[in-house]
């Protein structure tokens, strides 16, 4: 009553003509008059709307609800719906608690369908006649459970619920809202379990005073109830704190109460249900059960398809695709299902051929529904797939064992990613030059040089398998077409560097020459030079060493910082140094 009186005072004040202030110029007076005229017209319009809504409220209380024109609700057309009285009064305490758990007038979001919720009326009484509503998400006072199942009659539904009471759940739901078809089938009801009066959970992440651990506990109880009701197909994909659902107070749906006396706090609910569950685990288990697969196969396939689903959603979002814009969750799930179906069928043929096409379709339907509801554009930078190891850690009881498995998995994933980066960097550098150094490879792959040395053998193995021949990159090689006196025709073909990074050479000179015969004489930052002993050249190729060769040395290698380390690790046949004409220079 006080709120209505304040509203009436505001309206009377808005309808009064204001007095123009003194000292205004002619232009300012004209502007003031226009603003005052607009304000007066707005106040008049708001007053007319208020009188009209007041008349609708009086008519609703006197004559009841009447659907004046046909509307499509829950997938079928309704017309001629009439109902006397208010369900909030007929349902007793649960009905009154549902009214109290929604926003005040002007903030209550309702809708004729589940997609686009909005403020339809400033009257809360008229808003609660619509078939879909949203509760107060700041103060969570109930759990809404969505059942993806149909019953032949309401009595069979109640029988199934009563069979679960006492073994899975402590009592029946307080309110139920669903759709009854003309043949009596009860389709996809929503169940409402209320917290005791005065025990709503404060949910405001932006307020530092709000204890989010209590909100997490609320979500844990929700998923525990969903798991307890999985035998009647409780939907695990629905968020815990959305507070959206079918309105049991609407005359357009079938609503009734099954419990108006028993209430239970969250701490007592924790003794009945498993509060350690979460949405990801329940969705994956439900997908495995629906498809009729074992948990390992189902979880691996679910993870692969889920990655593809999020990749598609990110692509649609950045491309402003019409399949993602201006669509509700159901529409996005349908578009995602159509796009994922051929990809998933191809993946099943590669991964596990024993999955049938029907099972793939069921898995894709579950993944599409889950991904469409969980997709958040604000978190696009975080490409995280949760519960990917659920089939591995399912039997582990301690946190240490789970962490060990997760660490091994993360290490393997990181190693494979690093190897892929090295192979990609090799391919990029090989296009520009025939000689690829380890330092350049590290810079191109954006990894450290120790990482390149550690993964060198694996990289060489991958390249050899792919190319079908042995790959060498760091060692200095003779340019094509260079010939030297006294050099055998097969010298370059038989070149076999030795050391930790290469296999044992079979070249005869490699068995007799050591690193002592290659004497380093200059070392400075980013520059390395080597002098070749004259004795080595005299012994291997008499006459090939003249005065111009006495001061032979390698030219400075500016791009390869690893030359000294390579020289210390590898021993080269003498023919290589004799043949390397372009890297030798005369004495000054």
Distance between the termini: 107 Å
Number of helices: 20
- Number of beta-strand segments: 16
Uncertain spans, ≥5 residues at pLDDT below 50? 474-588
Largest sheet: 5 strands, antiparallel
Helix content: 40-55%
The 3D shape can be described as globular
The whole-number mean of residue pLDDT values reads 76
Beta content: 5-15%
Break the fold down into its secondary structure elements and pairings.
Elements: H1 2-15, H2 26-63, E1 65-66, E2 71-73, E3 76-78, E4 82-83, H3 87-90, H4 93-100, E5 110-111, H5 124-127, E6 132-134, E7 139-140, E8 142-146, E9 150-151, H6 154-164, E10 175-180, E11 186-194, E12 201-202, H7 212-228, E13 244-246, E14 254-257, H8 266-269, H9 279-291, H10 295-318, H11 329-351, H12 357-374, H13 390-393, H14 399-432, H15 438-445, H16 449-454, H17 456-467, E15 518-524, E16 527-532, H18 534-540, H19 563-569, H20 574-579
Antiparallel strand pairs: 1-4, 2-3, 5-6, 6-13, 7-12, 8-11, 9-11, 10-11, 10-14, 15-16
Helix pairs in contact: 9-10, 9-12, 10-11, 10-12, 11-12, 14-15
């Amino acid at each position: 009553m006080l709120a209505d009186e304040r509203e009436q005072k505001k309206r009377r004040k808005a309808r009064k003509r204001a007095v123009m202030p003194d000292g205004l110029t002619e232009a300012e007076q004209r502007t003031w008059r226009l603003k005052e005229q607009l304000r007066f017209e707005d106040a008049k319009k708001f007053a007319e709307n208020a009188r009209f809504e007041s008349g609708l409220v009086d008519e609703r209380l006197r004559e009841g609800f009447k659907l004046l024109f046909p509307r499509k609700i829950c997938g079928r057309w309704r017309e001629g719906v009439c109902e006397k009285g208010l369900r909030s009064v007929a349902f007793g305490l649960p009905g009154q608690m549902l009214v109290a758990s929604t926003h005040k007038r002007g903030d209550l979001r309702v809708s004729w369908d589940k997609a686009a919720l909005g403020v339809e009326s400033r009257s809360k009484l008229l808003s609660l006649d619509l078939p879909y509503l949203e509760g107060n998400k700041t103060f969570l006072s109930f759990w809404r459970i969505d059942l993806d199942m149909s019953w032949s009659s309401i009595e069979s539904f109640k029988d199934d619920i009563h069979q679960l009471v006492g073994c899975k759940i402590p009592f029946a739901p307080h309110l139920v809202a669903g759709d009854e078809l003309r043949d009596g089938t009860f389709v996809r009801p929503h169940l409402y379990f209320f917290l005791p009066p005065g025990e709503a959970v404060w949910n405001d992440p932006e307020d530092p005073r709000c204890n989010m651990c209590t909100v997490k506990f609320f979500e844990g109880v929700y998923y525990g109830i969903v798991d307890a009701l999985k035998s009647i197909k409780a939907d695990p994909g629905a968020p815990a704190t959305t507070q959206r659902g079918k309105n049991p107070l609407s005359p357009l749906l079938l609503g009734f109460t099954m419990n108006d006396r028993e209430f239970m706090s969250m701490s007592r609910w924790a003794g009945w249900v498993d509060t350690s569950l979460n949405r990801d685990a329940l969705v994956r288990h439900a997908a495995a059960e629906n498809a009729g697969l074992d948990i390992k196969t189902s979880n691996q396939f679910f993870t692969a398809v889920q990655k593809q689903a999020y990749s598609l959603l990110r692509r649609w979002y950045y491309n402003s695709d019409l399949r993602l814009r201006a669509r509700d969750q159901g529409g996005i799930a349908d578009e995602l299902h159509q796009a994922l179906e051929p990809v998933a069928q191809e993946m099943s043929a590669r991964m596990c051929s024993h999955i049938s096409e029907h099972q793939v379709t069921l898995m894709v339907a579950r993944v599409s529904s889950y991904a469409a509801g969980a997709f958040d554009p604000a978190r696009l930078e975080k490409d995280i797939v949760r519960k990917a190891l659920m089939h591995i850690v399912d039997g582990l009881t301690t946190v240490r064992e789970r962490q060990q498995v997760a660490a091994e998995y993360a290490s393997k994933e990181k190693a494979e990613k690093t190897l892929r980066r090295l192979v990609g960097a090799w391919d990029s550098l090989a296009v520009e030059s025939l000689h690829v150094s380890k330092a350049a490879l590290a810079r191109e792959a954006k990894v450290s040089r120790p990482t390149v040395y550690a993964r060198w053998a694996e990289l060489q193995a991958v390249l050899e398998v792919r190319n079908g021949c042995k790959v060498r990159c760091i060692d200095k090689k003779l340019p094509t077409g260079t010939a030297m006196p006294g050099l055998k025709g097969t010298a370059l073909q038989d070149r076999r560097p030795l050391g930790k990074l290469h296999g044992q050479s079979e070249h005869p000179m490699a068995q007799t020459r050591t690193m002592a015969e290659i004497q380093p004489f200059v070392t400075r930052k980013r520059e390395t030079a080597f002098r070749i002993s004259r004795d080595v050249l005299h012994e291997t190729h008499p006459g090939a060493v003249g005065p111009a060769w006495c001061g032979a040395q390698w030219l400075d290698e500016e791009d390869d910082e690893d030359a000294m380390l390579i020289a210390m690790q590898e021993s080269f046949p003498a023919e290589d140094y004799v043949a390397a004409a372009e890297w030798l220079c005369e004495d000054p």
